[in-house]
Amino acid sequence: MSHLRTLFLVAPLLAIVPQVHAQSAPAPSFGHAIVGTWSWVTFGGTCMETWQFRHNRTLLSTSGQEVAEKRYKIDATADANGFYKLVETVERQNDKKDCAGAMLDGPGDQTTRFVQFSPRGDKMLVCQAAALKACFGPLQRVP
């Protein structure tokens, strides 16, 4: 009889466990070719930019003395010419100059870029428009 009483007490708890687990489980990770760390040496090797795109759609970027944390959105698929629209929004930054001598405006500042990946996915070209004009890079994927 005590086994039956234990079963009646344990069964409702077991029914609740999957619901609690589902509510506390982390959101599925964001998988995209951009996720990872990318680097580019500029101005004849005198300055380095590093962009770390994380699964949670945050970006840590360094360029010269500038360090910035941003949120990003990127198209799930490329357009007909292989470009992905990338929108970055500054969350925090250190008010220092980047490799080009420019400074971010601050939190809320938004930049739209268009990126294209090499066939192997180890290089990324960054452009102002969805065309091979006004581009920089390629950035190399850091293993």
Describe this structure in words.
By secondary structure, this protein is of the alpha+beta class. It has one domain (36-142): Lipocalin. It is 16% helix and 42% strand. It contains one helix and eight strands. The protein has one helix at 2-24; strands spanning 36-42, 47-53, 58-63, 66-74, 84-93, 110-117, 123-127, 135-142. Strands 1-2-3-4-5-6-7-8 form an eight-stranded antiparallel barrel. A hairpin with a 5-residue loop joins strand 6 and strand 7. It is globular. The termini are far apart.
Task: Output the keywords.
disordered N terminus, Lipocalin, alpha+beta, eight-stranded antiparallel β-barrel, 143 residues, globular, 8 strands
Secondary structure layout plus pairing:
Layout: H1 2-24, E1 36-42, E2 47-53, E3 58-63, E4 66-74, E5 84-93, E6 110-117, E7 123-127, E8 135-142
Antiparallel strand pairs: 1-2, 1-8, 2-3, 3-4, 4-5, 5-6, 6-7, 7-8
Quick overview:
This protein has 143 residues and is an alpha+beta fold. It has one helix spanning 2-24; strands at residues 36-42, 47-53, 58-63, 66-74, 84-93, 110-117, 123-127, 135-142.
- Secondary-structure content class: alpha+beta
N to C succession of SSEs:
HEEEEEEEE
Q: Based on DSSP secondary structure assignment, what is the total number of beta strands?
A: 8
CATH architectural type:
Beta Barrel
Helix percentage range: 10-25%
Number of domains: 1
CATH topology: Lipocalin
Mean pLDDT: 83
For the largest sheet, list the strands in their spatial order. Answer: 1-2-3-4-5-6-7-8
Query: What percentage of the residues does DSSP assign to strands (E)?
Result: 35-45%
How many DSSP helices? 1
Query: Mind summarizing the main beta sheet?
Result: 8 strands, antiparallel, barrel
Low-confidence stretches: 2-28
Shape: globular
- State the separation between the terminal residues, measured CA to CA: 61 Å
